[in-house]
Design brief:
The complex is a heterodimer. Chain A is an all-alpha fold. Chain A has 12 helices and no strands. The chains are: A mainly alpha, B mainly alpha. Chains A and B meet through helix 1, helix 4, helix 5, helix 6 and helix 7 of A and helix 2, helix 11, helix 12, helix 13 and helix 15 of B.
């Protein structure tokens, strides 16, 4: 769409602007629910809608009490601590295994490449409730159900497809003669990997890690089944809060999580551009 | 070249024939690739494939009857269930023996619970008889047929014995039949009475609602993807943030946002009342029903539709549309005959992805779906954590998994797993 040509008919003009309005409405639909949560979280009352004071922008109508609740309530703090304890470990596990496998998959001659790829991506495709049910049954058999490591293993498995996808995408543009040159100059494979290959694919690895992190950090279905009360994570606590008695503290938590996702999105976007620059493409 | 044929096979530096040397190098390369992949494959096998396999096994596993009532199962083998008569005394005696040891180990209620799924009432029969079973004197020469029927009339019902006989094999299709609203009757599989048919309707509802969500995603994503693909890069990147931010925002955050917006005392109803479209005492019920689920899930899954459509539309040259118009096509013809057909791969990729994701959703329907807007996943979760009928949960899961795998296969065919892009 390069603007309206000067010879456009009235009908075309009307359609041009109608179309833009429609698109605007759809963008509004996408973003409004997330934005609405933010001002509501500063509500001085325990309501889930705008009070007359808030609409008048009266300072009386706003307060930080829901944030105070979040930071002082032991249940929420325990949940936050559990999330912080689980997500990074699961991320490290899926990134280290996933990066190795992605490098293996991008070699020239991999037997059954398509089948392996399909298996490795499947945790993303199989409905979470099925993964959750299977892990619940199987982990009860081997004594991992309700344990910290059970949840970490489950979350690492769910994060792996994202690591595989982002790292293989980065490796597509990787110039393999660089590793050959390194080997030619006497570097052993480990040195080559850490000194030559890793720095170049690092943006892909980091954005894969962020995807894996957010997968674990947001995950609620699997942890509901595989975890026990000792592994109650932030999303779990939110789920309970929403299902039983909905408390406005959830709005404060939601706002904090939106801020976290904005930070993650920005990081991923910057990394994508850096990666494209490294591979000699002009960033769009 | 000519002198090579004279001196026999081409040799590598170390003297082995070049062909063999190359084959060895290739083999080594393959091995190295596999060695790099192996740890992850092993990991996925243990933490994902085996669990799913375990679930599939549980959907047919049925060793509880033959393990708890071993003597009865053997004694019942020769009994003809269709005779309408009770089994002979030996079967009752075997049952008394089994019940005594089962009651001592306190596992008689489990087998009762298992058989209760198939024939309601058996659970209490086992529980009540089990209470007395620990005191059974097996050596006293009691006629167990009379004794058992005396304890509970249930033992005089041939139907109870038929159920025990039917479920005495270690593998059963019973859970699957149950999951498709059928059961094993006297003449093989039969469908359940009308009022007990819930799962097929639930599956149909899940498919129908996923379809509605997919269609609304297509309708909303198409214009957005088009405008993103056709605006100058700088503006498109800015608008892209509006698509990616929901994508990165926690699912729980988005679901709670919708829960708050759609409530009867929520923001949407407040606005409608304020502008006078709806009167205060007739606030719309837009949550805890199918409408609420469809709206919330369309919002949540929309980025998964926009992104593949966008990446396809980006590759379509603008000049095609101009060429069509300069050849005399109207705006609509140019769009419909030239542009739209080229975007079909994007629509296909996005639709399969959204449909696959939608069909297995659990959290959002559980929170905004009420009772009318729930999916099959919610029933699976119910059977795992509340009714404890794990076999039925596993059978429902297996059916859902089969649907998803067919779609996954189609996706791999059409789009290719390697072409999945994120963000």
């Amino acid at each position: 769409m390069s603007g309206l040509p000067p010879y456009a008919s009235t009908g075309q003009r009307v359609w041009y602007y109608t179309f833009r309005v429609i698109c605007g409405l759809i963008f509004f639909f996408l973003i409004a629910p997330i934005v609405v949560v933010i001002p509501l979280s500063f509500n001085a009352q325990d309501f889930f809608t705008f009070t007359p004071e808030m609409l008048r922008l009266d300072p009386e109508g706003f307060s930080l009490k829901h944030y105070r609740d979040f930071f002082t309530d032991s249940g929420w703090q325990a949940a936050l601590w559990n999330s912080v304890r689980i997500a990074p470990v699961a991320t490290i596990l899926s990134v280290s295994l996933g990066t190795l496998a992605a490098i293996g998959l991008s070699q020239d001659h991999v037997p059954a490449r398509r089948a392996i790829m399909a298996i490795l991506i499947s945790p993303m495709i199989v409905p979470l409730i099925i993964s959750a049910a299977g892990m619940y049954f199987f982990f009860s058999r081997i004594g991992l159900q309700g344990s910290y490591w059970g949840v970490v293993l489950a979350h690492a498995a769910l994060g792996i497809p994202f690591v595989i996808i982002t790292v293989t995408a980065t490796l597509v543009g990787f110039d393999r003669s660089l590793t050959r040159a390194a080997a030619n100059m006497g570097a052993d494979p480990v040195t080559t990997f850490f000194r030559v290959q890793m720095p170049l694919i690092l943006p892909g690895v980091i954005s894969g890690a962020l995807f894996a992190f957010i997968t674990s950090f947001d995950e609620v279905v699997v942890v509901l089944f595989v975890g026990s009360a000792g592994q109650k994570t932030l999303p779990w606590q939110m789920f309970l809060g929403l299902r039983e008695q909905i408390s406005p503290t959830i709005l404060a938590v939601a706002t904090i999580l939106v801020v976290v996702s904005i930070a993650l999105l920005t990081t991923v976007e910057l990394l994508r551009r850096r990666s494209e620059r490294l591979r000699g493409m002009s960033p769009s | 070249m000519s002198d090579m044929t004279d001196t026999g096979p081409v040799l590598a530096a170390d003297g082995t024939p070049l062909k063999r040397s190359l084959a060895r190098a290739l083999r080594r390369q393959k091995m190295r690739a596999l060695m790099l992949i192996a740890p992850l494959l092993l990991f996925i096998l243990i933490s994902f494939i085996l669990p799913v396999g375990d679930m599939l096994y549980r959907s047919v596993q049925n060793d509880i009857v033959s393990k708890t009532l071993p003597n009865t199962v053997v004694a019942l083998e020769s009994w003809d269930a269709n005779s309408g008569e009770l089994p002979e005394e030996a079967v009752f005696a075997a049952m008394a023996t089994d019940l005594k040891s089962a009651a001592a180990a306190k596992i008689h209620t489990k087998v009762g619970g298992r058989l209760n799924y198939e024939n309601p009432g058996i659970s209490s029969l086992f529980r009540k008889t089990g209470r007395k079973a620990t005191k059974f004197d097996l050596e006293a020469g009691i006629v167990w047929k009379d004794e058992l029927i005396d304890i509970n009339d249930g033992w005089g019902d041939p139907d109870v014995w038929r159920t025990i006989q039917t479920y005495s094999s270690p593998i059963t299709a019973g859970y699957f039949l149950n999951a498709i609203d059928m059961r094993v009757g006297p003449d093989g599989a039969e469908s359940r009475p009308e009022e007990e048919q819930i799962y097929m309707n639930l599956l149909k509802r899940t498919l129908w609602m996923s379809m509605m969500i997919t269609i609304s995603c297509i309708l909303l994503a198409y214009p957005v993807a088009w405008i993103l693909a056709n605006l100058p890069a700088r503006q498109a990147n800015l608008l892209m943030i509006l698509v990616l931010l929901p994508f990165w925002t926690s699912l729980l955050v988005r679901t709670s946002a919708w829960k708050i917006l759609l409530q009867q005392q929520g923001v949407i109803n407040d606005i409608l009342v304020w502008i006078g479209l709806v009167s205060d005492d007739a606030r719309l019920v837009i949550i805890n029903n199918q409408f609420g689920t469809i709206v919330a899930m369309t919002h949540i899954l929309l980025p998964f539709m926009i992104l593949p459509m966008y990446s396809v539309m980006q590759t379509i040259p603008v000049t095609y549309l101009r060429a069509a118009k300069s050849l005399g096509a109207t705006d609509w013809t140019a769009f419909w005959r030239v542009y739209f057909p080229q975007t079909i791969p994007g629509i296909g990729a996005g639709s399969i992805l959204v449909f696959i994701l939608a069909i297995g959703y659990y959290i959002t329907p559980a929170l905004v779906g009420g009772t009318k807007g729930t999916f099959i996943s919610n029933q699976i979760a119910f059977h795992i954590s509340t009714s404890l009928n794990w076999g039925l949960a596993a059978a429902l899961g297996a059916i859902l998994l089969a649907v998803v795998l067919v779609l996954y296969w189609a996706y791999d065919r059409i789009v290719g797993i390697d072409n999945v892009k994120l963000g």
